[in-house]
Structure formats: structure tokens, C-alpha cells
From TrEMBL:
<keyword id="KW-0479">Metal-binding</keyword>
<dbReference type="InterPro" id="IPR000192">
    <property type="entry name" value="Aminotrans_V_dom"/>
</dbReference>
<dbReference type="GO" id="GO:0031071">
    <property type="term" value="F:cysteine desulfurase activity"/>
</dbReference>
<keyword id="KW-0411">Iron-sulfur</keyword>
<dbReference type="InterPro" id="IPR015421">
    <property type="entry name" value="PyrdxlP-dep_Trfase_major"/>
</dbReference>
<dbReference type="Pfam" id="PF00266">
    <property type="entry name" value="Aminotran_5"/>
</dbReference>
<dbReference type="GO" id="GO:0046872">
    <property type="term" value="F:metal ion binding"/>
</dbReference>
<dbReference type="InterPro" id="IPR015422">
    <property type="entry name" value="PyrdxlP-dep_Trfase_small"/>
</dbReference>
<keyword id="KW-0808">Transferase</keyword>
<keyword id="KW-0663">Pyridoxal phosphate</keyword>
<comment type="similarity">
    <text>Belongs to the class-V pyridoxal-phosphate-dependent aminotransferase family. NifS/IscS subfamily.</text>
</comment>
<feature type="domain" description="Aminotransferase class V">
    <location>
        <begin position="39"/>
        <end position="184"/>
    </location>
</feature>
<dbReference type="InterPro" id="IPR015424">
    <property type="entry name" value="PyrdxlP-dep_Trfase"/>
</dbReference>
<keyword id="KW-0408">Iron</keyword>
<feature type="domain" description="Aminotransferase class V">
    <location>
        <begin position="236"/>
        <end position="363"/>
    </location>
</feature>
<dbReference type="GO" id="GO:0051536">
    <property type="term" value="F:iron-sulfur cluster binding"/>
</dbReference>
<dbReference type="InterPro" id="IPR016454">
    <property type="entry name" value="Cysteine_dSase"/>
</dbReference>
Length: 381
């Protein structure tokens, strides 16, 4: 076994560490913009100005209007609100909710809870079947459809623009989950969506802040008791310092997207090649090219994923295994199962903005020995 070293964090599929710029922005806002933005006193006015600025910046990054930006909480309740609100707003049309089979578990759970779920399959790379998608959204009684920009486990980009065209032709609103894409891909022109989802924790902002951008004219109705905050679209007082921090993080990652993305893409390219070359009986999944730049998932035969992640942690590398959206690492990945890929012994890497070539090389040096030792222990070598 390799000796323990300074931990290398490679689990950004579940969230990016808080950026220094986001931390500094929170401290600044907490000291000056902490007031209730609905009040007329100076702390309230400063808070209102901060919220207006944050909405403007988010809107610019997703090609929307500031008044369409709703500041929410974590991804799960945000996804639930998006789905439930459209089902409620379009209840006269029907309650069918169309998704791909590889959406985040929060989206899949909401689709099943608030409507009649119709799941469209994907190809071995994780890309939705457009012909089946078009047929599904064209059925009578479809309230909405949901699709990711890029998958949160394998990184594969979806044909979201074509999917949006199919939805528009059928008169069906599209919920577009941009969580994995924000700050990493160009999100200013993502097609004709109706509701866009995001989560600040995914790009280095506070994990408490989510985004739900609702286009004007969309028949979305609040699925919970409304109050006078955010025009009744999300209940309760907004956490202004956290929102200001989230906007600062998004500004930072967008400003450096091309440089950071190119470096991460090259590092993942190397990982894809070398993991397959150095470790026998391994399955590297997802689109090798048309993908989010920072993600890689592979499965090693004859190895338990939880054991592998624990042994890699002992060797100094924090990685993920199982489903990216399950509370338990032992839960098999529904994404890999939908793709027809191995779900046993899978490892998911998410590179940080600061992951270095040396850290990647160190991981590649350690991985074959760790896998071989586990297989030998199990008598599978």
C-alpha cells in the first residue's frame, strides 16, 4: 500500500470547495448587507441592492432577465419546486413528466411524486435517445419535460438544444438542469428552456444557495404557501450574504472557464487513457470528448466500489463511488445502470479548479497497486 500523503480532493462531482472569492464576498456582505431587503433603512437598502446585483449577474450568465431569477435553496427542493410548480400550473393539460433516465435523483423523485413519470432511455455514452424523447414529449397530457445540460456522473453533454426544439414544437415547457454546466460550459444560449436549475455548491459557492430561473410567460405556480418574498416564488427571507457569495463564485468561474476548462479537459483525457492502460479489466464510461471538462467515471471488475474508495482515501485520494446523488456510497449508480455500464466497483473523479498534473500522475501511480491488492485479497487477481 502507498503511504498516506496530504489528501488530494477528487470528488467535485458532489460539489466544489468554497472558492476564496466566495468566502471573501460572504464576509463583505455579512458586514454591510445583512439587513432585510424589504426594509427602507440603510442596511435594508444595501441588502436589496446586493440582491438586485446578484440577480443581474446570474441572469447575464444564463441568458435571462434579472426578474426571472429566483434565489432558492439546495438542488433537491429547487428541483421539486420546479417540477411541482409546472405540474400545478399546467394541471388542465395533464400530469405526465418526461425525463431522461440519467437525471439527478432529485429530479426523478420529483417527477414520480408530483406527476406520472415517463423516463426516456439513453445510449451507452449516456446521451438521451432524441427520437424517443420527441415521441414522449409529443404525447397528450405532458405537463413538462426535464433534461440535464451535462450529466453529473459521467459528464456527457445532452443534445439539449434539439430536445428543447422538440418540446417547443409540442408546446411542452422544458426544465433544464444546468447544475453541472454552470461555470464550466457556456450557459448563455442553451436553447428554448422554460425553467433553468442551478446550485451554487457545484461551482464553488455556498451549498445553501440554489437557482431557479423561470421564464416570463411560463405557467409555473408556487407549490407551497406563498409569502411576500420574491413575489411569492420562494418562501422566506433571502440569505443575502450567501447569495452575494454565490454570485461572486459564479463570476469567478465564468471569467476563468476557458483556461480552467481546457486544463481539466486535458487532465481527464490523460486519466481516461492511463486508467484503461494501467488497470486490467476496467470500464471507462461517458463521452470521451463532448462532455463537462472535470468529470471521469470508471468501473473496475472484481472490486467493490466502497472498498476501493476507502483504500484510495487511505492512500491520500478522496474519490466517490456509487450514485452521485445518493446519501449512501453503497447505492448503485442509476446513471451507469441506464447506460448498460458496470455498476460494481465504480469510481468517480471530479477535478477541482486547482487539481495539478502532479496530483493526477500520483493518482495514476497509486491506482493500479490499490486495485491489484484488493483483487488479490478477494482472490480475483
Amino acid at each position: 500500500m502507498a503511504e498516506v500523503r496530504t489528501p488530494v480532493f477528487l470528488d467535485c462531482s458532489s460539489g466544489e470547495p468554497l472558492l476564496p472569492e466566495a468566502r471573501d464576498a460572504w464576509v463583505l456582505a455579512a458586514s454591510s448587507g445583512w439587513g432585510d431587503p424589504q426594509r427602507l433603512h440603510r442596511p435594508g437598502r444595501l441588502a436589496a441592492q446586493a440582491l438586485d446585483s446578484a440577480r443581474e449577474r446570474v441572469a447575464a450568465h444564463v441568458g435571462a432577465r434579472p426578474d426571472e431569477v429566483v434565489l432558492t435553496g439546495p438542488l433537491a427542493p429547487t428541483a421539486q419546486a420546479a417540477v411541482a410548480g409546472l405540474v400545478q400550473g399546467r394541471r388542465r393539460v395533464g400530469n405526465l413528466v418526461v425525463t431522461s433516465t440519467v437525471e439527478h435523483s432529485a429530479v426523478l423523485a420529483a417527477a414520480a411524486a408530483y406527476g406520472e413519470h415517463v423516463a426516456v432511455g439513453v445510449d451507452p455514452l449516456g446521451r438521451v435517445d432524441l427520437e424517443a424523447w420527441t415521441e414522449a414529449v409529443g404525447r397528450p397530457g405532458v405537463a413538462l419535460a426535464c433534461l440535464q445540460v451535462a450529466n453529473h456522473e459521467v459528464g456527457t453533454r445532452q443534445p439539449y438544444a434539439a430536445a428543447a426544439q422538440a418540446c417547443r414544437a409540442a408546446g411542452v415547457p422544458l426544465v433544464l438542469d444546468a447544475t453541472t454546466a454552470l461555470g464550466r460550459l457556456d450557459t448563455t444560449a442553451l436553447g428554448d428552456w422554460s425553467v433553468l436549475l442551478g446550485w451554487a455548491g457545484a461551482y464553488g459557492g455556498p451549498a445553501s444557495v440554489g437557482l431557479m430561473v423561470v421564464r416570463r410567460g411560463t405557467r409555473w405556480r408556487a407549490p407551497y404557501p406563498a409569502d411576500d418574498h420574491q413575489q411569492g416564488r420562494w418562501p422566506g427571507v433571502v440569505d443575502v450574504p450567501a447569495v452575494w457569495s454565490a454570485a461572486a463564485a459564479l463570476d469567478t468561474v465564468v471569467a476563468t472557464r476557458e483556461v480552467v476548462g481546457a486544463r481539466q479537459h486535458a487532465l481527464v483525457d490523460r486519466l481516461r487513457r492511463e486508467v484503461a492502460a494501467r488497470v486490467p479489466d476496467v470500464d471507462v464510461v461517458g463521452d470521451p470528448d463532448d462532455r463537462a471538462p472535470h468529470l471521469l467515471t470508471f468501473s473496475a471488475l472484481y472490486v467493490d466500489g466502497e472498498t476501493l474508495s476507502l483504500e484510495l482515501d487511505r492512500a491520500g485520494f478522496a474519490v466517490a463511488s456509487g450514485s452521485a446523488c445518493s446519501a449512501s456510497s453503497e447505492h448503485p449508480s442509476h446513471v451507469l445502470a441506464s447506460m448498460g455500464a458496470l455498476t460494481h466497483g465504480n469510481v468517480r473523479l471530479g477535478l477541482t479548479r486547482t487539481t495539478t498534473e502532479a496530483e493526477v500522475e500520483a493518482f495514476l501511480d497509486v491506482l493500479p497497486g490499490v486495485v491489484a491488492e484488493i483483487r488479490d485479497r478477494l482472490g480475483a487477481a
